[in-house]
Design brief:
138 residues, 7-stranded mixed β-sheet, single chain, 40% strand, alpha+beta
């Protein structure tokens, strides 16, 4: 399986503040922006950069927690559409941060962000599955 990472740097260009991880032929596995740098268009820029690198006709997919309205709004604004649901796909801690069931918590590990509260029994939430078809070249 191949993987590609796209990064977003801070204003000096010296430190990554976000990244997108695409696995296989077009599954967006992770899109992460450090909390300090959110709401600056970095997520959109990363998403658009990833799409630009895909071959025309490729279908890009991703999963997102159904309650993650900001992320869902971003994906829909770029042209993704919901194509399905995965029940109990994400495990969510008390602070609302999620991860794929059985995988590491990317936000907390990558940025060393501590959860305000630890829930000894995380709950699971459904995921929406989204797809974007890269337009064929004209």
């Amino acid at each position: 399986m191949r993987a590609r990472v796209t990064e977003s740097a801070d204003r000096t260009g010296n430190r990554p503040v976000g990244y997108a991880l695409v696995v296989g032929d077009g599954h967006l596995a992770e899109l992460v922006v450090h909390p300090t740098y959110r709401r600056e268009g970095r997520g959109r820029a990363l998403l658009e950069a990833v799409i630009e690198r895909l071959e025309p006709g490729t279908r890009m997919t991703l999963t997102v927690a159904v309650g993650n309205d900001p992320a869902r709004a971003l994906y829909e604004s770029v042209g993704f559409r919901e194509i399905g649901r995965q029940p109990e796909f994400f495990e969510v801690d008390a602070g609302g941060r999620g991860r794929d069931a059985g995988e590491r918590n990317v936000e907390n590990e990558a940025w060393n962000v501590e959860s305000e509260t630890r829930n000894p029994e995380p709950r699971t939430v459904d995921a929406a599955v989204y797809a974007y078809d890269v337009p064929e070249e004209c």
